[in-house]
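G., the chain you wanted modeled:
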Amino acid sequence: MYAAGLFRVEGLSDTLHLVRFMPDGSLDPTFNNLLKFRVVETTASMGAVANRIHSFGDDRLIITGAFELADGEPRRGICMVDTSGQLSMDAFVDAGCGNYNYNGFIHGSMRGIIPAPEGNYYIWGAYHGYDDGTTNDPQQRFISRLHGPHVGVQEVLEQPVLRIFPNPAQEQVTFEFERSRLGSDASISVRDALGREVYRQRLSGREHPVVWDTRAVPDGSYIVTLLSGKGPPGSEKLIIQR
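Predicted structure as tokens:
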């Protein structure tokens, strides 16, 4: 069993943040139970706190909380460790949430992370701005959506081909895709700017391409995701403008 927080275990003088217990309740000696989380700029009265643990695959964990350093490395509210408790150096490097001033206190924390149906992830917390280690978006507040793990050139080459036209659309839009790269459970999903699914259509056995009547939804920006069942999903932005 894993536990995260800000606590001490009887017999140890160290303040602990992330531990693994054996079935009898003792600390697992094969786990790095002394991984240190620290704050630098924030003025939290209790110091750094790790508050949630999310399993990522079979061999890694994502930790969220109110911290700026993990094992001495910059990790602002979110970090990844392996199942031995060692900090991963290939994820969330120099990344995390931005701080803000509230009534004279500097604060910034990440409360949790949850997978989205289309393969992305949502993070939420109390923060102003999110930096993914490459790009800093100062407009992010309270909830953000992150790409899944299969982002980059390799994913672009492997994802199913999806073409949307016309775009911007008015009364209807056409989705065109490469049928040879679709699985038996392939579908198209359309979500609005709040992440709500407004349209879904299974593709197996249907004519190609697919035409969607957009008159039932308001003008705005939408994300069209092609879920193929044969690799990572492919997404394109759709604008409906009448």
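The longest strand covers residues 121-131.

Shout if anything looks off.
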